[in-house]
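Usage

Read records sequentially. Each one opens with the input sequence:
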Amino acid sequence: MSGSIYMSATGALAYEKRLQLISNNLANVNSAGFKKDRSRFRAFGLAEMSSSTRRPVSWAQSQAPDYWMDFNTYTDFSTGKIKKTGNPFDLALSGTGFFCVQTPDGIQYTRRGDFTVNADEVLVTQEGWPVLGKGGEIQISLSKPAADNQEFSVSEDGYIAVDGSQVDRLRIIDFTQSRALEKAGNNYYRALKPNALQELDEGLKVSQGFLEMSNVDTVRMMTEMIEVLRGYESYQKMMRSIDDMNGRLIHDVGRAG
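and closes with the structure output:
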């Protein structure tokens, strides 16, 4: 494969991956607590890389060993819009921080605050996983069905009260290093660097009766999708042009012989 076609194919592949990210972002535009994914990529010659940073040569590289594409994704943790629901068990965090949830795969973290109370009177997620407080699972023993915010209340700094009596405080964590969390599905995150997590006790703002929605900007995502589609088409045209040119060259050489 010629270097020109390889570079065109590399660019097309990068745009295809960007399109997949954008499509997933748009599919989750109404998902509570969803954080959009972004991408970075760079195509360059291997000669630009020092021997200490050069990656092992893969099968794809062996076809055109002078080029390489570095593509990676990251999660944009910027805050989404806060939506009022009026449900006392819906909680939203303003600024940094994540709720802690006990899942079958261990403790995971989320900004999705659409909680409820199960039959055992424990505060849980929609999947039935316990939301964690400073003392572990949060027991909610209501004397009668919750009809208003007076029976179950959560203060801005995360203290939970039932019928006016404090029962626990939400365990809220943040991370001190980039890429300390990775997506685990359904708007949950697992810790990649447990030592980079810290509990937040100050500067919290918990809003009861609200949900943080997705941070996806629909208009911007649609604009990016159009840009990506045009870029992908440009690389396709480039590959076809190079292929046609090579075909004519081979044909002309054959006739000359």
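Summary fields computed downstream for this record:
- Residues 56-65 have pLDDT under 50 and may be disordered.
- The first helix runs from residue 3 to 27.
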